[in-house]
Amino acid sequence: MLLLLIAIQYPLWLGKGGWIKVYEMEKQVELQEAKNSLLALRNAKLSGDVKDLKDGTRAIEERARVEHGLIKEGEYFVQILPADKASSSISEDTSKQAGGK
To answer: Is the pTM of this model over 0.70?
Structure first.
């Protein structure tokens, strides 16, 4: 009788559709759902970018300014350096002028 009970329980616990396999599959499903939610957020952002690029020119202009350095006619490009870079470039300029005299 005990042998029959063990024979019946084996597939339930260790078989192809046993509890251990079900637990492992549930973990895989949870991981995949987490990945899917991250991808859904990324897709929503990209969809918004596509809509902006199709509908308005502001997004195109902003991308051209940032990525390609677009400057409109009549505009001036001003670059402000941090204090440590500005002082080092000034000292380099003064040393070049002093060495050149």
So the answer is: no
- 100 inside domain: no
* Tokens matching residue 72: 């409109």
> Cα separation of 50 and 67, whole Å?
17
DSSP state of 98: H
Spatial distance between the Cα atoms of 50 and 53, rounded to a whole number of angstroms = 5
Domain tally for the chain?
1
- For residues 77 and 71, the answer to whether their CB atoms sit within 8 Å is yes
Structure-token pair, residue 90: 């000034």
Alpha-carbon separation of residue 9 from 32, 47, 80, 95 (angstroms): 31, 51, 75, 87
pLDDT-derived band at 101, boundaries 50, 70, 90: very low
Sorted by sequence, the CB contacts under 8 Å of residue 81 that are 6+ apart come out as 89
